[in-house]
Amino acid sequence: MINFPAMTEGQRKSAILCAQNVLNASWANEHMKRIAQIALAALTVEPVAYTDDEELEDLSKHTFANMFTPRKEYKTDPLWLPLYTAPPAPVLQVPDGWIRCSERMPENDDLRCMVYCRDSVIRTAFTSHGDWAMHGKYYDPGYVTHWMPLPPPPEASNEQ
Q1: Residue ranges of the alpha helices (H) in 45-148?
Q2: Tell me, what's the pLDDT at 1?
C-alpha cells in the first residue's frame, strides 16, 4: 500500500479546480481528461469507513479487522485511515459486427478499420507492427477493445 502525505483542504480544493480545468480545456487530450476524471473522483468521494494501522496489521495476520463509521474528527486525525468503495467497472455495450481484439486482429498492417476504444469512443485507425495508429499517434494494443473493417466506399456516380 502506498501512503501519500495528507492533503490540506486548500490543496484538495486546488487539485479539484485543476482537474476541472483539464476536463474543460480544449488543449487536453483524451488521456489527460481521463486522468483528470480519475483524480476528480478520488478527490471528491467520501470514505465509507475508517480504520487504523493496528487493525490493518490484525487483518494481515487473521481474517478480521475493525472498521469504524465515519466521524468528522477522523478526517483530521492522521492515525485514522479512510476506506473507500470502488464502483463496479462499466460494462461496454458493443454493437454486432465488432471483432474482439482478444479474439482476432487484422491480418495485415495498414488495413483501415473502425475501432472501439476503452474510453467508449469509436475512431478510425489502422494497425502498424502490432500497435494501433490513430491521428498520427500510436497506441498500445490494449487501448482498442474491438475493431471492424471499414465498409467499401460508395460507387462513383455521374451526379454532381
Answers
A1: 53-61, 72-76
A2: 45
CA-derived radius of gyration, the chain: 23
> Which of 141, 150, 145 is CA-nearest to residue 117?
145
pLDDT score recorded for residue 47: 80
Torsion of CA 99, 104, 110, 116, to 10 degrees: 30
- Name the residue with cell 466521524: 71
* Rounded-to-integer distance, Cα 150 and Cα 4, Å: 47
Nearest Cα to Cα of residue 120 among 146, 149, 86, 87: 146
Residue 12's pLDDT band, with cuts at 50, 70 and 90, is confident
Assessment of whether the complete model's pTM goes beyond 0.90: no
Cα 53 to the center of its chain, rounded Å: 29
C-alpha grid cell for residue 148?
A: 471492424
* Backbone CA torsion sign across 139, 21, 76, 66: negative
Q: What is the pLDDT of residues 69-79, one digit of tens each?
A: 878 887 778 78
Give the whole-angstrom CA distance, residue 137 versus residue 55: 47
Tell me the pLDDT band of 160, cut-offs 50, 70 and 90. Answer: low
Q: What are the extents of the domains in the chain?
A: 1-44, 47-87, 99-149
Q: Is the pLDDT of residue 3 over 50?
A: yes
